[in-house]
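User:
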Amino acid sequence: MDPKNRRRHRVFATKHTEYHLRADECVAVRDRSTGAWLRQHAALRLRAVQLPPLGADAEWIGRRLQFWGHATDVTTSPVTEVMRPELPALAHYVSGVRSGEIAA
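Assistant: Predicted structure:
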Protein backbone atom coordinates (compact mmCIF):
# COMPACT_ATOMS: atom_id res chain seq x y z
CA MET A 1 0.00 0.00 0.00
CA ASP A 2 1.25 3.47 -0.87
CA PRO A 3 2.36 5.15 2.38
CA LYS A 4 0.96 8.50 1.13
CA ASN A 5 -2.48 7.02 0.42
CA ARG A 6 -4.02 5.59 3.59
CA ARG A 7 -7.37 4.84 1.96
CA ARG A 8 -8.46 1.29 2.83
CA HIS A 9 -12.06 1.24 1.61
CA ARG A 10 -13.40 1.23 -1.95
CA VAL A 11 -16.81 0.57 -3.44
CA PHE A 12 -17.11 -1.34 -6.71
CA ALA A 13 -20.58 -0.80 -8.15
CA THR A 14 -22.31 -2.94 -10.75
CA LYS A 15 -25.68 -2.13 -12.32
CA HIS A 16 -27.63 -3.49 -9.33
CA THR A 17 -25.14 -3.98 -6.48
CA GLU A 18 -22.39 -2.21 -4.54
CA TYR A 19 -19.49 -4.28 -3.20
CA HIS A 20 -17.72 -2.51 -0.33
CA LEU A 21 -14.13 -3.65 0.17
CA ARG A 22 -11.55 -3.08 2.89
CA ALA A 23 -8.30 -3.80 1.11
CA ASP A 24 -9.29 -7.00 -0.77
CA GLU A 25 -12.01 -8.26 1.63
CA CYS A 26 -15.71 -7.75 0.88
CA VAL A 27 -17.10 -6.20 4.08
CA ALA A 28 -20.55 -5.11 2.83
CA VAL A 29 -22.92 -5.55 -0.09
CA ARG A 30 -25.78 -3.14 -0.85
CA ASP A 31 -28.64 -3.27 -3.34
CA ARG A 32 -28.39 -0.07 -5.41
CA SER A 33 -32.10 0.24 -6.15
CA THR A 34 -33.37 -0.15 -2.58
CA GLY A 35 -30.31 0.84 -0.54
CA ALA A 36 -30.75 -2.34 1.53
CA TRP A 37 -27.65 -3.95 3.01
CA LEU A 38 -27.49 -7.61 1.96
CA ARG A 39 -26.32 -9.38 5.13
CA GLN A 40 -26.59 -12.87 3.62
CA HIS A 41 -24.79 -12.18 0.32
CA ALA A 42 -22.33 -14.90 -0.72
CA ALA A 43 -19.51 -12.38 -1.34
CA LEU A 44 -19.37 -11.18 2.28
CA ARG A 45 -16.03 -11.90 3.98
CA LEU A 46 -14.56 -13.29 0.72
CA ARG A 47 -11.35 -11.93 -0.78
CA ALA A 48 -11.09 -10.40 -4.24
CA VAL A 49 -8.83 -12.38 -6.55
CA GLN A 50 -7.46 -9.29 -8.29
CA LEU A 51 -8.01 -5.55 -7.86
CA PRO A 52 -6.65 -2.46 -9.57
CA PRO A 53 -3.92 -0.62 -7.69
CA LEU A 54 -5.07 2.42 -5.73
CA GLY A 55 -5.39 5.34 -8.11
CA ALA A 56 -6.08 3.10 -11.12
CA ASP A 57 -9.71 2.34 -10.29
CA ALA A 58 -11.03 3.64 -13.63
CA GLU A 59 -9.20 0.79 -15.36
CA TRP A 60 -11.64 -1.63 -13.71
CA ILE A 61 -14.78 -0.24 -15.39
CA GLY A 62 -16.34 -3.00 -17.51
CA ARG A 63 -14.43 -5.78 -15.74
CA ARG A 64 -15.85 -8.24 -13.22
CA LEU A 65 -14.77 -8.77 -9.64
CA GLN A 66 -14.03 -12.33 -8.56
CA PHE A 67 -14.12 -13.31 -4.91
CA TRP A 68 -12.84 -16.59 -3.48
CA GLY A 69 -13.33 -18.41 -0.24
CA HIS A 70 -13.02 -21.87 1.29
CA ALA A 71 -16.53 -22.97 0.36
CA THR A 72 -17.64 -20.66 -2.44
CA ASP A 73 -16.56 -18.30 -5.21
CA VAL A 74 -18.46 -15.27 -6.52
CA THR A 75 -18.14 -13.44 -9.85
CA THR A 76 -19.95 -10.12 -10.21
CA SER A 77 -21.52 -8.53 -13.25
CA PRO A 78 -19.36 -5.82 -14.91
CA VAL A 79 -18.25 -2.93 -12.71
CA THR A 80 -19.84 0.37 -13.74
CA GLU A 81 -18.24 2.67 -11.16
CA VAL A 82 -15.54 2.67 -8.48
CA MET A 83 -15.85 5.14 -5.62
CA ARG A 84 -15.11 5.85 -2.01
CA PRO A 85 -17.79 4.87 0.49
CA GLU A 86 -19.82 7.54 2.21
CA LEU A 87 -18.92 7.79 5.89
CA PRO A 88 -22.32 6.50 7.18
CA ALA A 89 -21.83 3.28 5.15
CA LEU A 90 -18.95 2.20 7.39
CA ALA A 91 -21.37 1.47 10.25
CA HIS A 92 -22.98 -1.26 8.10
CA TYR A 93 -19.79 -3.18 7.40
CA VAL A 94 -19.73 -6.75 8.73
CA SER A 95 -16.70 -5.97 10.86
CA GLY A 96 -18.86 -3.39 12.68
CA VAL A 97 -21.54 -5.91 13.64
CA ARG A 98 -20.84 -7.39 17.03
CA SER A 99 -21.37 -11.00 18.04
CA GLY A 100 -24.92 -11.65 19.20
CA GLU A 101 -26.29 -8.54 17.54
CA ILE A 102 -29.01 -8.85 14.93
CA ALA A 103 -28.37 -6.37 12.16
CA ALA A 104 -31.11 -5.27 9.79
